[in-house]
TrEMBL record:
Binding site for ATP: K32
Natural source organism: Phytophthora ramorum
Domain of life: Eukaryota
Residue ranges constituting the Protein kinase domain according to the UniProt record: 3-263
Entry-linked InterPro entries: Kinase-like_dom_sf, MAP_kinase_kinase_kinase, Prot_kinase_dom, Protein_kinase_ATP_BS, Ser/Thr_kinase_AS
SMART domains reported for this sequence: S_TKc
Lineage: Eukaryota, Sar, Stramenopiles, Oomycota, Peronosporomycetes
Family statement: Belongs to the protein kinase superfamily.
Protein name, per record: Protein kinase domain-containing protein
Key words of the record: ATP-binding, Kinase, Nucleotide-binding, Serine/threonine-protein kinase, Transferase
Gene Ontology MF terms in the entry: ATP binding; protein serine/threonine kinase activity
One Pfam family from the record: Pkinase
Record-linked PANTHER family: MAP KINASE KINASE KINASE SSK2-RELATED-RELATED, MAPKK KINASE
GO CC field: cytoplasm
Length: 263
């Protein structure tokens, strides 16, 4: 399809996101541009297959994938998705100011989308408020769930290579330690951190300061127990977050199980 790139609307995992217009229909969409190195035909075919898979996913609470394009000259992989005009929960966090009733509504939609992805054997790898969009009707749309799959399909440029998929404040201990393969339960930990952020504005470790990202990663990787949750949370919220933040991933409930919780 012919398309025209507009203004940058954010920097997501692995690449920059732009607003774009479909020249055939006039509709708006989001496009993420990812730098790739010397791509091979097989890598391009694999990336295209991944996008075809992602396009087949249909759920109210996940962003729709529309297609992809490889620009050999610019050495970029462009991934097209629906544009969600409301912005992210991180961007809009102050609008609902930790209102538990609103956060509960968003959380249930998040869990519904994640449960669907997990049922399709897709692990998000980077759940956080910045990757949870909300449309003008207050409907949550999970974004960026295909990026790590596509990155693994194509060859990243050296400037974009990342050894760990995810964002430190939302990464499970076992992911940082790389003690086991990435599982659905790592997404559950990230959901707990996300809900805590939406309700309190802070990360799990509160006011604790870390001099570097490496120090933060070391702290999370070596947690023996989860720090006490902030005061002011309802018993239901405390129970929900604590269930997500079990150090042992085996003890964390699934997204489908969390949907049945009181929160």
């Amino acid at each position: 399809t012919e398309w025209k790139k507009g203004a940058s609307i954010g920097v997501g995992s692995y690449g920059t996101v732009f607003l774009a217009r479909d020249e055939d229909t006039g509709s708006l969409m989001a496009v993420k541009e990812i730098l790739i190195s010397e791509e091979t035909d097989s890598a391009i075919r694999e990336a295209t297959r991944e996008v075809d898979l992602l396009r087949s996913l249909k759920h109210e609470n996940i962003v729709k994938y529309l297609g992809c394009h490889v620009d050999n000259k610019a050495q970029t992989l462009s991934i097209f998705t629906e544009w969600v005009p409301g912005g992210s929960l991180e961007h809009n966090r102050k609008l609902f100011g930790g209102n538990e009733r609103v956060v509960r509504r968003f959380t249930n939609q998040l869990l519904s989308g994640v449960a669907y992805l997990h049922s399709k054997n897709i692990i998000h790898h980077d759940i956080k408020p910045a990757n949870i969009l909300v449309d003008q009707n207050g409907v949550v749309k999970i974004a960026d769930f295909g990026s790590s799959r596509l990155i693994n399909s194509a060859t990243l440029s050296s400037g974009s290579t990342r050894s760990l998929h995810g964002t430190p404040n939302y990464m499970a201990p076992e992911v940082i330690k790389q003690s086991s393969g990435r599982s659905r339960k790592a997404d559950i930990w990230s959901i707990g951190c996300t809900v805590l952020r939406l309700l309190t504005g802070g990360p799990l470790w509160g006011d604790r300061h870390f001099d570097s990202q490496a120090a933060l990663l070391y702290y999370i990787a070596n947690l023996q127990e989860v720090p006490p949750l902030p005061e002011g949370l309802s018993p239901e919220a405390q129970k929900f977050i604590s269930a997500c933040l079990q150090i042992d991933p085996v003890l964390r409930p699934s997204a489908a199980e969390l949907l049945k919780s009181a929160f």
